[in-house]
Design brief:
This protein has 302 residues and is an alpha/beta fold. Helix content is 39%, strand content 18%. NADP nicotinamide-adenine-dinucleotide phosphate (NAP) binds next to α1, α3, β5, β8 and α5.
Amino acid sequence: MRILITGGSGFVGRTLTSQLTGRGHQVIILTRSSSPGPPPNPNATYLTGNPLKPGDWQQTASQCDGVINLAGQNIFTRWTDEVKQGIYDSRILTTRHIVEALSRATKGSPRFLFSTSAVGYYGDRENMEVDEDTPPGTDFLAHVCQDWENEALQAERYARVVLCRFGIVLGRNGGALGQMIPLFNHFLGGPLGSGKQWFSWIHEQDLAGIFIWLLDHPNISGPLNCTTPNPVQNRELARSLGQALHRPAFLPAPGFMIRLVMGELGSVLLSGQKVLPRKLVNAGFEFSFPDLSRALGNILAS
Ligand SMILES: NC(=O)c1ccc[n+]([C@@H]2O[C@H](COP(=O)([O-])OP(=O)(O)OC[C@H]3O[C@@H](n4cnc5c(N)ncnc54)[C@H](OP(=O)(O)O)[C@@H]3O)[C@@H](O)[C@H]2O)c1
């Protein structure tokens, strides 16, 4: 298949491109960069275009077999009003322009839109178990996710739409672990606040595996929790990471400090959701890394 990925140059996109091309698919990575360098492998190409704006890239998108939508401004920074607008626009406008492209497609293609969302959709849920039927939360990220998903759902008239609600993606070269490992290596690791908040996560290889699996399971559509069946509390994450790195993990970062330094994002880091991937499990998806200690062992071994 010929698949266009927005945000394909990022942390998740790099692993996904490698898995898709490894299975013989052709990947077009849409990037805002005018000089992205050589493509990561022979079955991948870069296409320069800004998904925040309509443009020639939409023509290419409309001629692909499917689109995977990963684009979005990084949320891990202090949220000023301007940053919040950027976080919102980079997801909602991008998705709107993809749907516009799909509406122009000639008969038969594209056949799918796999669009990103996040477990932040559910807001802070304390100890409650959450699945795809749980209603959305009310905080900023929950609103972003709802609007992001609603934009993607506009493509249902033209294509199959899956709303992939990512947990925190754990992988080798970036994401949350990219931020945490240096702290632990400098003996500064530990739980955030009380450490009781739930942390719903997924290994990057399993996340890429879900997209591959979706290609073979055309009956799956709508919201899909992309998380391991074994979420952990934040203190368990700190303990497991400390163990895997052979470093102590007892230095808690006090909640008030996190809120002071990170502002509104701090409140998000101190809250969480215990998310279960009900649809994936019921449909028989097999996780390669369902447990945190094995996942961390694999990630840190290389
Ligand atoms: N990583 C996680 O743990 C996690 C968890 C939940 C949800 N997600 C979501 O999954 C998606 C992929 O995550 P990731 O970790 O791979 O992110 P990433 O490494 O930050 O990559 C995102 C890509 O989006 C593009 N992008 C960045 N800012 C943009 C902007 N202002 N407007 C348009 N495009 C922009 C960039 O591509 P170019 O610069 O090449 O254009 C970038 O490579 C994101 O939407 C993220 O919110 C990630």
